[in-house]
Amino acid sequence: IAGFDFGCVTDGTCTTSKAVPPLSQYSGVDGAGQMQHFYSKGMNTFRLPTGWQWLTPSLGGTLDSNNFAKYDALVKACLNTGAYCIIDIHNY
Predict the structure, then answer these.
(1) What is the pLDDT of residue 87?
(2) Model's pTM, two decimal places?
(3) 48 Cβ contact partners less than 8 Å away, ≥ 6 residues apart
(4) What pLDDT score does 71 carry?
């Protein structure tokens, strides 16, 4: 379920405003519904990518609590399906 990794490029820069949280309450994208649909069709594992730079916007800084809360909501939505959820953090 992509979205949190958008806006990050391989040179290490990350434009956090380009991230699209794949949950309807944040962007209108129904990632939770997508996971539930595919789980009902027999898929039992979902990869949840995010850019490390999106979670920690400044080098050496702390986690951004707002961004982390959005990613945590996606993880919880995944777990609520009954599927396995792969925390997939990328550092560009």
Answers:
(1) 95
(2) 0.87
(3) 1, 4, 71, 74, 75, 78, 85, 86, 87, 88
(4) 94
- Residue 66 is predicted with a pLDDT of 93
Amino acid letter at 45? Answer: T
Amino acid making up residue 67: N
Distance, CA of 35 to CA of 24 (rounded, Å): 13
Q: Which two tokens stand for residue 41?
A: 């069709």
Amino acid in the structure at residue 58: S
> Taking all residues of the chain, what is their mean pLDDT, rounded to a whole number?
89
H or E, element range at 84 = strand 84-90
10 Å CB burial of residue 41 (0-12, 13-18, 19+) is exposed
